[in-house]
Amino acid sequence: MGNRHAAIVAEYERRTPRSKAALERARKTIPGALVQGSRHYAPYPIVIASGEGSRITDVDGNTYVDYFQAATAQFLGHAHPAILEAVRRQIP
Fold it and tell me: How far apart, in whole angstroms, are the C-alpha atoms of residue 54 and residue 70?
């Protein structure tokens, strides 16, 4: 399992260098460098750039199904058009 694990970590690091760099920047100002610790994976978490519906995209351009969807996105998904419109109406 050691070699397989090392290969998985190496592939993760190859796919997510911008997430790693963002985490290093965040460590300078955010305690623990995470806003939501439940999404932390070794060797470092991905950093989300955007979300739509059930999918999220990290700063490296990788898209994932968001199985964690916090309470704010749990029922309607990320960036639901009706929610975005309601927020826009509140902005002067």
Answer: 11
